[in-house]
Specification:
By secondary structure, the protein is α+β, with helices and mostly antiparallel strands. The chain contains 12 helices and 10 strands. Strand 1 and strand 2 form a beta hairpin.
Length: about 290
């Protein structure tokens, strides 16, 4: 990687420092992205301006984006130096206030401790690991990825898959393996694939009876293909899940042939790829709304 040349393409000392940091993280296998003031990500393409692609208002969670590849929020993080230093990213670096990274993409989990009480709890409960000092507390870094979750206990967030964390330096200490105690923090109740479809049964029952143009075998084969499409996705998972849900509902959402069991299969496949139950429900609801169901 010709890092000095890449940096010279960018004007402005402040931006060059952030870009230099991002390129160094990328070279170390840590997907990086710029953040603006307030620790918020940028929308890095015109199609995503003003949240047009359906992400959440704070832009932390990409929605069903129609762009060629994910381009905002945690999904913008990349290890590709050419992408980081491309002209499309230049405005973001020009206004960047800090650099972040995608912990799950780097194979790590960040336990974000926001106050002294949370730090005291961690020291009593969790194994020692690499520690990074933050403005209000500490980041404890563990080797291994998991689902992200906010407010798992007072002052404690978990940032790993589908999340980003501010880069505040390498920290101190040796990185320990992700302990079961941290994984357990994100498990507040049994896995809800059954609950999620139950929340959505009313729209499904709004159909007009049997599906006259589809046989049960056709439906089962379609659900299996949808599961396979989600399972085999290697990128843009959130968008893939949404588009798959949309395709299934386009074919069977109006005729009343979909059952809770079918929806549960789709939700289970999506969650196996890292989607949270909330994201599954949001994607399903968005697809229903898109189709007017």
């Amino acid at each position: 990687m010709t890092q000095p040349t890449d940096i010279r393409r960018v004007s402005g000392r402040h931006m060059s420092e952030h870009l230099r940091t991002a390129l160094r993280l990328a070279a170390d296998g840590m997907p990086a992205l710029p953040l603006r003031q307030g620790k918020l990500p940028f929308g890095n393409c015109p199609a995503c301006a003003h949240n047009a692609c359906g992400g959440r208002p704070n832009m932390k969670t990409p929605g069903p984006c129609a762009c060629p590849q994910p381009c905002h929020g945690w999904a913008a993080a990349t290890t590709d130096s050419h992408v980081l230093n491309s002209p499309a990213w230049a405005p973001a670096w020009r206004h960047a206030a800090m650099v972040a990274y995608h912990p799950g993409g780097a194979g790590v989990t960040v336990v974000d401790l926001d106050d002294p009480a949370a730090i005291a709890w961690a020291r009593q409960t969790l194994p020692a690991t690499r520690t990074v000092t933050t403005n209000r507390g500490e980041h404890w870094i563990y080797e291994g990825a998991m689902h992200s979750a906010n407010a798992v206990r007072p002052g404690v967030d978990i940032k790993s898959r589908m999340a980003y964390a501010r880069w505040l330096g390498p920290g101190i200490g040796a990185t320990a393996a992700l302990p079961d105690a941290v994984r357990a923090l994100a498990v507040k109740e049994p896995s809800p694939p059954r609950r999620a479809p139950q929340t959505l049964t009313a729209p499904l029952r709004g159909g007009q009876g049997e599906c006259r143009h589809r046989t049960p075998a056709y439906l089962d084969r379609g659900i299996a293909m949808a599961e396979q499409r989600i399972t085999e996705a290697r990128s843009a998972i959130h968008a893939t899940v949404y588009r798959t849900f949309l395709a299934v509902l386009s074919a069977h959402g109006r005729c009343g042939c979909l059952t809770d069991a079918h929806v549960a299969r789709l939700f289970t496949a999506a969650q196996a790829k890292g989607e949270s139950p909330r994201h599954c429900i949001d994607a399903w609801t968005n697809a229903l709304t898109r189709l007017g169901l």
